Recover the amino acids of this structure.
């Protein structure tokens, strides 16, 4: 348990330092393409060594370390406050050359991603299964961009796409089932998220992955990942600039859908100043935010309301009210008339209960497996909980899939939640 606690503290400190670094105005830090490679915490948690690397080289990393040292007092106070630490470890920043020497040789920047897309044609765009607004918003936005460049492309998703997303496909030319010469995935952290069949079909074939998950498994030949982005759609905005494509109202609608749905209409903790700045730009480019907000945040089908009622009836509380579990079964789908595409809002319900730090939703699939959605409040790390079960995601929202009975799935998740809660008592 002690080792687990130190690992969790390391992960938490790393996450918050990355967040604080984004807020610093020091020119020695900003614009240096920095990555916190790792954080090593002493066994008594009194000292932490923070390894900082730069994609632009070791010299920029050394310059950034000087800026970080100058802001040491502020960084320690912010990290301690955000994590609720009684005693914040002493920090030592160290310039690291891992990236310069190719630790992540496949990691590329937006300019290189744009170059790859310009150089290729007959492009297949992959979205993850159980599609949400971000993966589809990115997928359709990229389709609009590529077709404006005269390229043949098509979008593929293993699951049915809900009618509420159909507006994003308007104006796109529909090509037949051509053999792709270049394959890119958007908002897909792990090839397994495409579906079992698609993962097998495209294993080793994905040329480019554009993503914002820190848990990305680097399955593509080249990947452009920015884990500081609130939504993958935030990455597509500068990609349009690099492609030399103007952000049309159609593209703006797609990207606004991705950003707004992944931030809970800007309520979630992943929302940043950059999120609002990019959104303002999309509004200026013609995004119909009032209509999109109405569709995604103010409209519920009768079947969804009935499903939500059944799901809330399944509510269970654990660990003194710090964890809430909601279950959605196939029987509930049948009784309500709802389908899987209508469940996006349910995982957030359990986290809204006062005193709950970890909200869990178990959703039974037609194949008998359970999709687990974890939503947390600080300092509980949802991604760490799901990673232990073969999944991943973000700090406050993550998921995984478990094969087994409802009771077994619930037991396995609760074991990890209990560990996380005990570390942060």
């Amino acid at each position: 348990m002690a080792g687990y606690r130190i690992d969790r503290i390391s992960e938490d400190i790393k996450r918050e330092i990355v967040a604080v670094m984004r807020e610093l105005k020091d020119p020695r830090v900003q614009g240096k393409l920095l990555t916190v490679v790792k954080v090593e915490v002493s066994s008594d948690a009194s000292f932490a060594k923070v390894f900082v690397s730069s994609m632009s080289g070791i010299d920029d990393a050394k310059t950034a370390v000087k800026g970080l040292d100058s802001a040491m007092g502020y960084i320690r106070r912010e990290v301690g406050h955000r994590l609720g630490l009684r005693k914040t470890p002493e920090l030592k920043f160290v310039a690291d050359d891992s990236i310069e020497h190719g630790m992540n040789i496949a990691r590329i920047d937006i300019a290189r991603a744009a170059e790859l897309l310009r150089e290729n044609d007959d492009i297949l765009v992959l979205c993850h299964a159980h599609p949400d607004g971000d993966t589809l918003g990115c997928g359709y936005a990229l389709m609009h961009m590529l077709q404006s460049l005269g390229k043949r492309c098509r979008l593929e998703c293993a699951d049915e796409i809900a009618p509420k997303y159909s507006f994003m496909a308007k104006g796109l030319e529909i090509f037949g089932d051509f053999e792709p010469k270049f394959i890119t995935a958007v908002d897909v952290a792990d090839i397994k998220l495409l579906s079992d069949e698609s993962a097998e079909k495209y294993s080793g074939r994905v040329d480019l992955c554009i993503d914002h998950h820190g848990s990305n498994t680097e399955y593509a030949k080249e990947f452009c990942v920015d884990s500081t982005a609130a939504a993958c759609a935030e990455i597509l905005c500068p990609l349009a600039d690099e492609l030399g494509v103007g952000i049309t109202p159609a593209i703006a609608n797609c990207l606004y859908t991705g950003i707004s749905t992944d931030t809970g209409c800007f309520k979630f903790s992943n929302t940043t100043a950059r999120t609002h700045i990019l959104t303002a730009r999309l509004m200026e480019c013609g995004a119909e935010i009032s209509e999109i907000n109405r569709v995604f945040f103010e409209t519920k089908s009768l079947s969804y309301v009935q499903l939500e009622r059944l799901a809330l009836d399944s509510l269970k509380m654990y660990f003194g009210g710090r964890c809430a579990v909601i279950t959605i079964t196939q029987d509930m789908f049948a009784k309500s008339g709802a389908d899987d595409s209508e469940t996006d809002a349910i995982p957030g319900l359990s986290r809204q209960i006062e005193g709950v730090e970890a909200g869990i939703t178990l959703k039974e699939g037609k194949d008998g497996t359970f999709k687990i959605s974890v939503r947390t409040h600080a300092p509980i790390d949802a991604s760490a909980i799901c990673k232990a079960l073969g999944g991943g995601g973000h700090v406050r929202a993550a998921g995984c899939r478990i094969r087994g009975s409802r009771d077994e799935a619930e037991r396995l998740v609760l074991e990890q939640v209990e560990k996380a809660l005990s570390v942060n008592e």
Remarks:
- The radius of gyration is 22 Å.
- The chain is about 40% helix and 20% strand.
